[in-house]
Amino acid sequence: MTRKGEHRPTGGRSVLAMISSPVASRIDGVSRFAREHGWHLMFQDRMGLAHPFDWIGDGVIATIRGDKRELAFLHHLSSLEIPIVDLTFACPDFPCARVSCDHVADARLAAEHFLERNYRSLVFFSIDWGNVHERLWRGLSEKTAAERWVFSLDCPKVRWNDWGAVSRWLENKFASAAKPLGALTYSQGEAVLLLTAAKRLGIRVPEDFGIIAGGEDRVLLENQPVPITAVDTDMGRGAYEAAALLQRLMDGEPMPSKAVELPPKRIIERRSTDATVATDPLVCAAIELFVSGLRSGVNVESAAQVLGVSRNTLNRRITAELGHSASAELQRQRLMRAKRLLTDSNNKVEYVARMCGFSSASHLRQWRSETSDRRLWCKYDTPVPFLALTRHWLNAIIALL
Known about the structure:
Elements: E1 14-18, H1 24-37, E2 40-43, E3 59-62, H2 68-79, E4 84-86, E5 97-101, H3 103-116, E6 121-126, H4 131-140, E7 146-150, H5 151-154, H6 163-176, E8 181-185, H7 188-200, E9 209-213, H8 218-222, E10 229-232, H9 235-250, E11 260-262, E12 266-268, H10 281-292, H11 300-307, H12 311-322, H13 326-344, H14 349-355, H15 361-364, H16 391-400
Parallel strand pairs: 1-2, 1-3, 3-4, 4-5, 5-11, 6-7, 6-8, 8-9, 9-10
Antiparallel strand pairs: 10-12
């Protein structure tokens, strides 16, 4: 595509990437495609003080979020018939192609994770509210009604970075919430904010309050007093597919009539949801015995003996609390342990089977029928995302200490 007065480097396409926050997996996805196809890349922070209005190239990949300067610049490029691919749904009315996470599916996966662990009350938490937040809340609410904890809706006249006000607001929310409670957050920083507030108020995580971040950031989420579970939205794959779509648009293909929505890859489970919540002390003790005795081959009969009750009593109490038998709960704990070990380590299936109390790998393979993520069985690897803890989240957390 040639434009009057255009200047581009000789060789490959000239592409502008306006991506914020600069998540490493997104950057890697775009960069990998660029290397493979000889692009000339220019990276520009969409929140920068100025945009390069004199830039004229072949295409743009952006995270469009509604900043006036950003939109003015993108409208300018669009008027020059430069194709644009958006990586978000924050501004769905902006006319361009889109490749993004399926936010409803992301939240649906988080809800299933919570409900499997007996968190019956769910909440979506965010400082702000917009199209993406609404999609996440909608997905979280599909199987059970979820509350909305949205600071900007409850306190519209208070600045979002007034962390003292946020702290008081969260304290009131926690005080009135039914527990155990599972919370999905829009961002990784908001997950850390929730954890900090819960710890300050003496709320046990994960026993009374489970947390799932709406995106992965291993560096941030693993390095917390309670490491935080996350939805792996596979941003690297999304960015690569967005780059591929931009290549087709630059080659003259028409813009797709619908956005491309990519399903989540998996839940990355960490300590913030590593519990099966129960109110019956006997059931809590039985679950602890099941978990601690998986490797040694604990069974329902031996657990009942340790707890000083009959097998029938233990089975009846677990069924009343969790809705399934004691044997089913023991098997569920084995499968959850196996899933974590297969996902987060390089161990072979045979070794994982022994660690989880299965007599053989063939017995463990029944898990295939209980999960659609076959990639775990072929040791699927992904790049490790990195998202620095930005200054405003750091200020928020300090205010809660």
